[in-house]
Amino acid sequence: MIYERIYSAENLKEAWLRVRSNRPPPGIDRVRWEDFEANLSFNIALLQKQLQEESYKPLPVVIFTDAKTKASGRTIGLSTIRDRVVQQAVLRVMGPLFEPHFLPCNYAYRPGKSALLAVRQASRLISQGKLWVLQMDVAAFFDTVDHSLLLELVGKIIKEKPVLRLIARLLKAKIFREMALMESFLGTQQGSGLSPLLSNIYLHPLDTALWQRYKDSFLRYSDDLTLFAEERDALEEGQEFINSCLVELKLSANPQKTSLSHVSAGIVYLGFYLDTKGKGPAKKAVEHLQERLRGYNKLRKTDILDERLAEVKAILRGWHNYYQSLKPLRPENLLSLLALVELSLESGETALARQWLKEAQQFPHRHPLAAFRLGELLSGLGLKNQAMREYARALDLDPDLEAAKERIRMLQEEEANIHGAIEKIQLVLHQNPHYREGYQKLAEYYGRLGLYGFAQKAHHKAMALDDDLESWPSGDAVPAQEDFSSQGDFNYQAVDLELFHSLFAGRREAHAKQWADERGRWGFVRVERPLKTKDIYKHLAGDITLGVYLVTAKDTVRYIVFDVDIPKRAFLKAPPHTLAEMQHQAHQDVVRLKHAAEQLGLALYLEDSGYKGRHGWLFFSEEVPATLALRLGQDLMHLAGGPAAGLIWELFPRGQSERHQSIIKLPLGINRKSNRRSLFLTDDNHPFPDQGLFLKTIRTNPIDLVQKLVFPHQDPLTQQEAASAWQTRAPGLFKMVSECRVLHHLLAKARDTHYLNHYERLCLLYTLSFAGEEGCRLLHQTIAYCINYDYQYTQQHIERRKNSPISCAKIMEYFPELAETLPCNCKFQVPPRSYPSPVLYLLAAELEAAAPLPKTPAPQSGDDTSASPSPKPEAPANDGAFSQTEAKSSLPSPLVETPPEPPVLNFAEIFAAEEAAGDPPADPLTQKDTDLNGEKGTRLLPEEKESKDLSPKEKAPEHGGTAEKKFTTSPILTPSSETPQSPPVAIALQAYQLALEYLQLRLDQASSARRLQELSSQLAEIFDGLSDDTLQTPAGVIRRLRHADGSVDWLVTSAG
């Protein structure tokens, strides 16, 4: 039995070894091949059990495009490790069964066949005088393979129903693409272990028809079709015949890749350029390789050279094995130059290696081992002087590179002529003037020649290099600032350091230190560590002057500071008496701010800034959002009436873009600019006698009062009310906003501060809106907390947003402070070829609701854990969405399956294989509905279960009889007399495409309601011009269903 051979333990183990040899990446379950191997016995036994019981179900396939397929629009499928093993197990058994039936014109995916053999055959045909060439390519072949027809063709050789059902399940595996989970209706994914064999099976009828006509003049490599002939007319006829054959296979030719030309003009075939003179690499292939080489332009000093070079050599070796030549190539960077030179030396092309080495100076670098490698290559070719320069350059980049030193010594010792040795040393010193051993050797050689003056100079230079190394300065060479000892009556030891630290707390992970120089310049330098008590002590003592960053990583503050200042130009030009008046006015301004605060019930405290003006400190009882604090400060400045003439007011922290960089100098320290201490003042402009005691009297302002002052008409929501507003009926959405700390913070910030900046709103837009209507509703609710909310404007952004959600990396880039304070704790699995995003919680919830994904975890503590069989998914509720199988069941019998007309391809005679022993001689194609789980025929609905055991003859009226289909070679399909009159083909195909897209969108009705309405309207316009609500198209049948309430549904069935 074929099926038993597939799930045998021996076959599964051999399939695993084949999978393991390729070291594949993990699939959607994130199980690596190493994890699978760690529990190999259990995993193989589990797969065997699932296959034997026919309970095996493949996991979703990750679909993506890579650099190779992006331009062509083709996609690659990434299956899980367990599914790869099953694919290989099926391939090992099926391959030998189909290989004897394949024809010599098929050069793809077969043992003993290759693209090179196809190119050689093409060259042979050209040499025979067949100089006209027809080249065609099947449009989107792997994406448009019809599953039903493919299973028919497999069933010609393999009669066992379990095998056919297994292949059907592999073909119908769900697809994960662009952060969404979708059904698979057509195609076989490139990247699947079975796809090459299945593609050959699917196109074998085409091979048969063309081989019978053209023999070895026809070549096929995968979906690339090529036909040679002596006359153009024969190819024009052949093109029509091929097109008709493709129609029978439900395929079409790609017009952009179809050409009929003469070889004298040159053709490109499988990467080779062919003409009457011979063959060579195609220009496009050369450009493609050069582009790949340009990806290695960057070579960092920390890169492991051997690993990077091995990657480039692997690329170039593959090229050389295929084209047998490196001559058309040119080095794009140092790595490609090294690889080309080494490969050319391996192949004996020394002249080519010398030519490429001349270009080494075009690629500057800072990698010592790369310079050493160049020296080795030059030395091997006998270019000693050039090699010496490269060794010296390697030593300059890494003075401790002993291999380079040894090579330099060897080249010096090999030089018999002492003058030549001196010349080589001078080459080294020119490249590396700090090479002490070179000067020592030079002194030795000059001494031998009696040139004692030169020898003494070389010796002194070597000694100077030694002295430089020994006398290298350590520590800070900048003179320390003078000690400010004049502190007046201030007793810094009386200040409570812990109280001071808590009152003036800012950003926890960093603080600032003030500096000033003798030229009058000053500023602050950032110190990347938390502020310590000993730092505060030095600040109060006058040894250093500190500042703090007011805004924390959570975008909150403990206080705000009003800075009343004299403009710098006025301060420098004003005479002493005018300056005193301005300073007095500055004090009056800050007192005015204090009185305005007192009117609102707030406490504000005055401080001498120590230079030009005054500071006003307003403390909060707890951390408050910076936006809320700034709004309060702005309102307070407006209430106080603004600055007096000639003064300026500033509020710290500063505005949106600068507030995280805002620094305020801590009080009670010495201002380095003026050498004056900053003390707290009374209203009449006198310092408090005991600054330490004053700090203990400071009163903080309650947060509820602040919120009431800023938003007098809005009552703050409680945490419970806010949580109730966020929680929705969608479990995935609730999980996303609960698990993602950043989203949770932004939702809370909108509620508490009534403000979100542009990037915060973008983050919510590109996460919440992907959760459908509930997500959009939550987005509106969140933005509505903000003062400037506008429904239409927000909705416009939702409708215009791009299809890709925001990534976790972009969130961390937008909010680095939040990333530090709220580290990511997300636990979702990231499917391959996607990226981490909070939106993946929606996918996880959907998968959990449908059927939990089996996963093979890595072994822990010696436990032999492995994948568990995936439970059968429950039947989805009928929400009005439409499937093709349901459509066939609900349509009248004549429209379900029209009796076929004679096709071009004789499927019945293509595979001349005997019936499998022990199987009944019935054709599996006549029992599609019960043998293939509905893959081809209709699915049994609940009311049809009683007829499930009927014989094929009793079901004949529904399926068009039990007699085997008869095929001829006529390429024309004649419509049945029962088929209603159809409109033009273009309109019919357009309607069919619209209907299929309509069905796809019904799967996600919540997020696609607008597009569904548009499609339904367009279909209605087409059907309104017809006399019937049923439309027959070349691809299938569409039917409009009118309901009593005026609504309309669309039913579609394929022509196959």
From TrEMBL:
Keyword Nucleotide-binding assigned: no
Keywords: TPR repeat
Family under the similarity heading: Belongs to the bacterial reverse transcriptase family.
Positions with biased composition (Polar residues): 968-980
Pfam families cross-referenced by the UniProt entry: AEP-TOTE, RVT_1
Protein name: Reverse transcriptase domain-containing protein
SUPFAM superfamilies registered for this protein in UniProt: DNA/RNA polymerases, TPR-like
TPR repeat locations: 368-401
Stretches for region Disordered: 853-902, 917-982
InterPro entries: DNA/RNA_pol_sf (IPR043502), GrpII_Intron_Splice-Mob/Def (IPR051083), RT_dom (IPR000477), TOTE_primase (IPR054347), TPR-like_helical_dom_sf (IPR011990), TPR_rpt (IPR019734)
Gene3D superfamilies per the UniProt record, alphabetical: Tetratricopeptide repeat domain
Biased composition, class Basic and acidic residues, residue ranges: 926-967
Reverse transcriptase domain residues: 45-274
Entry-linked NCBIfam families: PrimPol_Msp (NF040561)
